[in-house]
Amino acid sequence: MLCCGGGLRVRSWLTFASGLFECLCFAGAVFGWASLVFVLKSDGYFSQLCVNTTSSNGTYTIDCSGQDEKLSLIFTIASFMNNFLTLPNGFLFDRFGTMVTRLLGISIYTTGTLLIAFSNAAKSILLFPALSCIAVGGILFLVTNMQVGNLFGSRRSTIITLYNGAFDSSSAVFLIIKLLHESGVSLRASFLFLSFCSLLHLMRTFLLMPRKHIPYPLPEGYTYGVRCGQKKSYNIAASKDDTHTPAAKEDTALKENTSSSQNKSEKSFKSCVLSWFFLWHLMWLSVMQLRHYLFIGTLNPMLTRLTAGEPALVSTYTNAFAITQLCGVLCAPWNGLLMDRHKGRARKPGESEREADLRAAILSLALTALQCVLFSVCAATPVLPLQYLTFILQVLNRSFLYGGNAAFISVAFPAAHFGKLYGLVMALSAVVSLLQYPCFALIKGPLGGDPLYVNVALTLLTLLAFIHPAYVYLHCRGLASQRDRTTN
Predict the structure, then answer these.
(1) CA–CA separation, 102 and 80 (whole Å)
(2) What is the percentage of the chain residues whose pLDDT exceeds 90?
(3) Which of 457, 85, 432 is nearest to 282 (CA)?
(4) Alpha-carbon gap, residue 298 to 71, rounded angstroms
């Protein structure tokens, strides 16, 4: 059925559904770090850094700030690698295509899960390469899956944001591991299971994904994936007709689409990078991402402080945070629908499709910045019950942030540079995200564990994100004025 008639449509939906499952269950697991930290502490990872101290009233307490700092450093490095290596991964994807990129991602991800599976308290150091491998492998899953949106035309941005929302929701995987651990399932068993799931990723790579890329717009007669019912033949006649096989159609359509898009687009990769669009978008992403990373990396110490060290309450709030992450896959499509709301409607006279897409993106960019400010204000307020609202705003904003990031790059720049530009913006924002560790050290050191001043500073910093939608609005208004003058 996949090979004839409506075969491409069926295969497209299977590719979409399996990609959603992959992003939802594996790709962004690293961002469930707060749940995994709880398990790692109970298993004694870096427990040698906890020391006995005497409080002011003469009672003995255990100070685990050294353990918290080490675990925070692991997440800082992993989140940095997750973003920074997206740059070479983007070049790899653009140059060698889907299959090579996915095989590399599967290998790295499996290495990470196996390292955690065979680690223990005595080998805590293995967490450093392990979490970084899971982060890098996971982002490769996302990068290769976002092109699936090209199969669905007018709903392209919705699919891209949905996949990014699923990426956010996959952080709940570590919550499941935490709950299983509390039920008696060892950390090793859970991560061995994740390692064996790599067989599913391999099957999908060979059966439901293209060897190279899915072009946009989709050429007529385009097909991809498994060669249905085709047998290899070595006779001359067969080799002459080889251009009619599905695989050849994929390559031919892709080459034709790439060459035509390159002819239409005058923008080089360098001009894209040096444009104000790219620079303001980089700042928009960087300031909000830093806020999110610091919140996730310091959630466990923050909850410990707000609950006065009550383990049961810390566990309850950690579970609540992880459960809200599941809603990312439900929140992200709202952003895609905002960006696709003009599709199917008649454009203004003389208005290009790109201009219409940019105009539709303004509301999305501004709404994302507003969400981040509200989230940051709640996170900065040291009231424990208010953190439930903080968790909701955090997952809503994070799903809008990453979905909107990928969708904006896809509409604002040529498709031929998507992988490189997406990788570059993620890599540069990763450099900014390294500030989370000095912020954490500042809180633990000079500020005596009180994050209020750092939170206020970050809240003010997130206000800079409003510059990006304002610039896009002025750009679109300028194009409209120029069009009116030309018409008159």
Answers:
(1) 20
(2) 32
(3) 432
(4) 10
Tens digit of each residue's pLDDT (9 = 90 or more) over 388-440: 999 999 989 988 898 788 888 888 888 778 778 888 898 898 888 888 888 88
Bridge partners, 236 (sequence order): none
Give the global pTM: 0.72
Which residues face 61 on adjacent strands? 53
Q: Which of 379, 219, 392 is nearest to 305 (CA)?
A: 379
pLDDT in tens, 77-127: 998 888 888 788 878 888 888 999 999 999 999 999 999 999 999 999 999
Q: At what angle do helices 276-297 and 33-42 cross, to 10 degrees?
A: 30
Contacts 24+ apart (CB under 8 A), 436-444: 436/72, 436/76, 436/79, 436/290, 436/293, 436/294, 436/297, 437/72, 437/73, 437/76, 439/294, 440/69, 440/72, 440/76, 440/294, 440/297, 440/298, 441/69, 443/298, 444/65, 444/68, 444/69, 444/301
User: Given a cut of 70, is residue 237 above it in pLDDT?
Assistant: no
- Which residue in this structure is represented by tokens 């033949």? 233
Whole-angstrom distance, CA of residue 187 vs CA of residue 449: 30
Judge whether residue 21 has pLDDT over 60.
Answer: yes
Instruction: Count CB neighbours of 268 within 10 A.
Output: 12
Model pLDDT, residue 106:
96
Letter for the amino acid at 283? Answer: M
* pLDDT value, residue 7: 63
Residue 53 phi, psi (nearest 5) = -130, 160
Q: Give the separation between CA 205 and CA 226, rounded to whole angstroms.
A: 10
Whether the CB-CB separation of 68 and 405 falls below 8 Å is answered with no
How far, in Å, CA of 105 to CA of 83, rounded?
A: 14
Q: Bigger pLDDT: 207 or 487?
A: 207
Burial 429-460 (b: 16+ CB within 10 A, else e): bbebbebbbebbeebbeeeeeebeebbeebbe
